[in-house]
Write a structure and sequence with these properties.
globular; 22 helices; about 650 residues; five-stranded mixed β-sheet; alpha/beta; nine-stranded mixed β-sheet
Amino acid sequence: MQADFEKILGQLAVRVSLIHSGNEEQQLIAWKRELDILQGAFETLGTDVLPWGVLLEMPLQRLGRRLDAVVIIGGTIAVVEFKVGSRTCSSSDVQQVEDYALCLRDFHAGSRGRNVVPIVCAEHAPPVDLPPSIHVLENVSPVLQCNAGGLANCLAMIQRFNDGAPQLDWETFDSSSYNPTPSIVDAARHVYAGHAVAEIGRADASAEVLESAANRLKEIAIQAKRKGSRRICFVSGTPGSGKTMLGLDLVFTGDAGRVAGEPAALLSGNRPLVHVLREALAEDAASRGMTKKEARRQVYQGLQNLLDYLKEHSQGEAPPEHVLVFDEAQRAWDAEVGKKLLGRERSEPALFLDILNRMPWACLVCLVGPGQEINRGEGGLALWGQALEEAAQDGNRWVVHAGYDAIHGGEYVGDGILSGMHSQRNALQLVEEPSIHLTAGLRSYRTPSHGQWVAALLGGRIEEAASIARGMDAPPAYITRDLPMLKSWLRERCRGNQRVGLLASSGAVRLIADGIPPSPRSNELDQVAHWFLKPSGDYRSSNALEVPLSEFVCQGLEIDYAGICWGGDLIWDDGWQPRAMRAPKWQMVRKDDARMYRLNTYRVLLTRARAGLGIFVPFGDDDDQTRKRRQFDLGCKTLKMAGCVSL
């Protein structure tokens, strides 16, 4: 057996050293001790372990995370994290291995549908009593803790739990694909640390689509510089398909925020999104040795507030950035809003093109998503068509790169660019680019068709929504009339590094009667950043489940499990009926654009969750004219008819 140990250690040293650097001597000592502990546990259990599979230093993703040991016991997967020499098992140790188990469940094909049991083995820790049995929640059990001598008991317990299920082949398991889907905050951290979008961890078709789109955008920017031309790219796609990730990749990968050798920046009118990403990137850069001051300087250069940019550059000298990414470009405002904000009766697209027309060359990348307009004056792609037509009339011609839907209109973009143009269509050079239209939903990685379900639900197509729900592996949402029950459901799922939180419409002002406070406002940026970034145990964190976020401060961001508090601003009465509070009573919303904004509010809320969604519908109170029970009852019944399942 000693010869086998030496062979194993040699293979580990060769394979891991190709990817990771570190103290090789200390690592070999740790591996030797881990193998000793595993051998001792297997000898205690005897011949029963012979069919099991054991994988050591299993790579969890291409960014470098490795699992100490995976033991395949029948059809159950044990993830063992060794703490060699340790006398304690800390909460961070538990969180680490819990996160590993959740990542396997969610992103590893060989683990899909299997039960995963995480174990922390702290070598010299005092003995810990094991629970009487193993209970799993969504295929992952609570963390088992043991010392070196207790590992055998943990594995034996898992063997009893497996209850004779067929043995999973370890080679098949080892060769299974691992396709992680990072949150936008994690993706931003990875990109800012120097990893291209192709390296973030996925190895499936959606990763190839993202890589192809990223490469094409960089090619277009280089062509714009080489030919001295002005080019505008419209990157379209479903909510959560990776558009913002592409923008971050274009701005932050390569040579210190430069594209085609020139400065680049991502601009967003979503102040909370910009602030949260800035804080996350600055903290991450500081943790890797950069001073926080320098980190903030670099991050602020690459991530800018859109309105501030327009105020600074609408007149005077041209900006330094030749390559710009405009996030959520379909939300660009019209000339009426431009008059109010900047004193110039020009639409936001027109102001942008005015600025870039002063430069010898430019590449503007517009990220376009569907159904996200939640403010008055947001004009969609038609405004861009109008602005491009005006620019052509003034002799400033742009080359337009876009997918078919962005040009002509379609499900994921609404009206296309051409819908805003009239006489000057031939003045533009239109280049159809299928590679920059993204259709794979990456956000809802456990229910990929979630976006389709939301579209059918809010479109009032309840039978269609129910049909989509029946095709899902899990219900699109769980529903309850009990707020403490929703919070309990969320807390159970707040494991590892996963985030949970409450969401509520800004128009749902009467939720306060159910003990739900109002959301932070769009200018209370530190509160929003704390909500997304602070860890469990901090009352400011989303995980505390104390304060909901509204559509205005969560748009563009995401959490793993969301609890939506459904308000009286959207009720069901032979179709969804948006309402607005005109104290002391509700008034029906009649104008088409205002109705669309309210529906889009709930579209934003319903598409923030990555792993699971819960919905709280109040009972109401017939003694309160603003909270009639029948209205909430009908809404709850409709959500259930559409496929939601009671908690």
